[in-house]
Amino acid sequence: MSNGGVSDLTVAVVGLGYVGLPTALALTDAGAKVIGIDSSQDRLRAIARGAVDLLPVHHAQLACAVVGDGFRLTSDATAVTAADAVVVCVPTPVDARREPDLTALSAACASVVEHAVAGQLIVLTSTSYVGTTRDLLTEPLKARGFTVDEDVYVAFAPERIDPGNERHTPERTPRLVGGAGPNSARAAAALLAPTASEIRTVDTPETAEMAKLWENTYRAVNIALANELADACQALGLAPVPVIEAAATKPYGFMPFYPGPGVGGHCIPCDPHYLLWQLREVRQQAPLVAAALTANTDRPARMTERALELLSRAAVPADGARVLLIGVAYKEGVADVRESPALEMLARLEAAGADVSYADPLVPSVTVAGRVLHHVADPHTRPWDLVVLHTVHPVHDLSWLADAPRVLDTRQRGARVRAEVTA
Fold first, then answer.
1. In what residue span(s) does the UDP-glucose/GDP-mannose dehydrogenase C-terminal domain sit (predicted)?
2. How many C-beta neighbours within 10 Å does residue 377 have?
3. Is 18:161 a contact under the CB 8 Å cutoff?
C-alpha cells in the first residue's frame, strides 16, 4: 500500500451492485483510479449507460466517472493484480431453506486470493457469518505463503447503505473497520475514509462481522415486534401509527418501528439467518430471534389473508376478483424487488383465483408464479375490487383512491391517502 492518500491508489471493486457501485464512485470521486469488476456483462452495460438504481447524487457521480479516465469497467477477475487495494462487495443471500448461500462470496474471495500480490490491501464488505474474513481471506492467503498484516493486509468493513435514503448516504454514515492486525486496520481506515462520515476501528474482523449481524438482527426483531403490537392495537380498536408516534415522544429508550407487509431487500430478510445458522453449528439457541424471523416470514401470508377477508366481507368472490397492489419494490424510493413481500402476496392472491395487477413506476415488470406482470400506468382508469397499498413511492398520486371501494393499507398509514383504509 502507498503511504500517500487515496488519490495515489488503484482500487479494484469486486461486485458492482447496490454496495459496490456507490463504493466505487466514492473512491473515484476521492481521486483513486478504480477498476470496477463484475461477472455480469448486463450489469456492466447498464452501469456504462447509467441505467441503474442510484440516488441522484450518485447518478451525478456516475455520469462524471464513465466519461473520465479514472473509472474502468471489466468482467476480468485477473484485473485485481493491477490494484493496490481490493474491495469485495458481492451479495450474500439465503436459499429457499433460509440457509446462507455463500456461492458468490466464496468464488469472489477465492479469485481475489488467487490473484493477490504483495503489498495489497483486501477489504471484505459483504455481510456474512462471524469468521468469514478469516476463513475466506486470511487463512487462504497464509496458505499461499503471505504473511498477513506484513506483506498483505486484510480487513472487514461492513457496508452501511440504506438504498433510496438521501439522509443516510454512505458518505454521511460512520463505518466500522476490523483489521487482521494494526497495519491492516490503518490501511483499510485510510482507504475507506472518503466513503464515510467517520471510521471507527474495532479490534478484530470478527468484532465487525458480529456488529453487522447485530445491527440487522436488531432491526428484524423490532420489525416483528412492531407488526405484532400493531395487530394488538387493531384488536383493541386503536390505530397503530398514532400510538407509535405517541410512544416516540419519549426521548430515551425507544426507537419507532412501523408495521408493514413483511421484510424485503438484501439485508433484513437474509443477514440474521447467517447468525442463526452459525449458532446452530455451535448448539447455541436464540429463540427470540428465531421467532421474530418466523413472524417476518409469515407476514405476507397474513396480509394476503386480510385481503381475502375484505373481499369476503364485501361478498366479492376471490375467484376473478380484480386486485391491484400499489408498489412491489421492497421499500419506498427504490426499484429493488429482492425478497419483496409483494411477490409472495401476488402469488398467493393469484393462487386464490384473483386477477392480480400492480402499479409501480420504478419496476416495469415482475415474474409471479412463472407469469410476467407489467406495471399498470393508469390504475385510476380501471375498476378494482380491492387495492392493496404495499409500497408507496414519492411519485405515486393516490388521490384517486378516494373512489376505490376497498383499500387495504398493509403499512397502516391510511392518513397519507384520501380514502377509507381498512387494515
1. 324-410
2. 9
3. yes
d(CA 207, CA 193): 19
The Cα 81–Cα 256 span in angstroms is 47
Query: Would you please indicate which residues are annotated as catalytic (active-site) residues?
Result: 267
Q: Which amino acid is at 117?
A: V
Cβ contacts of 382 within 8 Å, gap of 6 or more:
322, 324, 376
Q: How confident is the model at residue 4 (pLDDT cuts 50, 70, 90)?
A: low
Domains of the chain listed by start with CATH number: 6-202 (3.40.50.720), 213-291 (1.10.1040.10), 298-416 (3.40.50.720)
Q: How far apart are the first and last CA of the chain?
A: 57
pLDDT at 422: 41
DSSP assignment, residue 85? E
Tell me how far apart the alpha carbons of residues 281 and 362 are, in angstroms, rounded to a whole number.
41
CA distances from 258 to 161, 255, 307, 313, 351 (A): 20, 10, 19, 27, 29
Count CA atoms closer than 13 A to 28's CA, side-chain side. 26
- Please give the Cα distance from 342 to 352 (Å, whole number): 15
Per-residue pLDDT of 382-396, as tens digits, reads 999 999 999 999 888
Higher pLDDT, 3 or 391: 391
Got the DSSP string for 160-193?
A: ---TT-GGG-GGGS-EEEEESSHHHHHHHHHHHG
Q: What residue type is assigned to position 278 of the chain?
A: Q
- DSSP SS3 for 171: helix
Question: What does the angle CA 209 – CA 213 – CA 217 come to, to the nearest 5 degrees?
Answer: 170
Where do the H-state alpha helices sit in 261-360? 271-281, 287-313, 341-351
Burial of residue 360 (number of CB atoms within 10 Å: 0-12, 13-18, 19+) = buried
Distance CA 275, CA 220 (A): 12
Q: How far apart are CA 207 and CA 190, in angstroms?
A: 19
Residue 8: count other Cβ atoms within 10 Å of its Cβ: 13
The C-alpha atoms of residue 246 and residue 362 are separated, in whole angstroms, by: 33
Please state, rounded to an integer, the average pLDDT across all residues of the chain.
94
Which run of H or E residues covers position 93?
none
pLDDT tens track for 179-193: 999 999 999 999 999
